Amino acid sequence: MTTEADFQRALAAEPSDWHTRLVFADWLEERGDPRAEGYRAMGLLRRAPALWGGRGPWVWLNSRWAKNYDPTDDIRTATVPDDWYDCMPKNENDVAHERTTLHEALDDAAAGFARLPAARRADLLTPT
User: Fold this and answer.
1) What pLDDT is attached to residue 28?
2) DSSP letters along 47-88, please?
3) What distances in angstroms separate CA 6 from CA 9, 82, 114, 128, one per listed residue?
4) Which pLDDT value is given to residue 1?
5) Structurally, how many domains does the chain consist of?
6) So what's the pLDDT on residue 94?
7) Mean pLDDT by 10 residues, the chain (128 residues)
8) Strand 50-51 relative to strand 98-99: parallel, antiparallel, unpaired?
9) Measured between alpha carbons, how far is 124 from 121 in angstroms, rounded to an integer?
10) How many CB atoms sit inside 10 A of residue 76's CB?
11) What phi and psi values does residue 61 have, to the nearest 5 degrees?
């Protein structure tokens, strides 16, 4: 893959593909893109938004929202730490969790990750 559009198409075809997310993070980092670290975190932590009801919108959850859903694999992987969730940009309804497109959901999660304090980002990126 040589363009961002190539990566976004691959991710759209397989939204839970954490390998592609990690390669995309490296690609972004090579270009000095601030989203790189967030995409890396999503890849390492195997986090991906869930497609609500199988047709949209794409959703991210935190511990408060996740408890309202059945604990399926999609819900578990769509749940990010509360502090990360709180740093995600809000949508027009002033909530951080719903996005129209997968690309938007991923970019907003990457942006939220970048807003975390450096020590917290490092903590999340450190394997346990």
Assistant:
1) 96
2) ---EEGGGTS-EE-B-HHHHTTS---HHHHHTB--HHHHHHS
3) 5, 31, 23, 32
4) 65
5) 1
6) 57
7) 89 89 95 95 91 76 76 77 90 69 91 96 88
8) unpaired
9) 5
10) 14
11) -130, 155
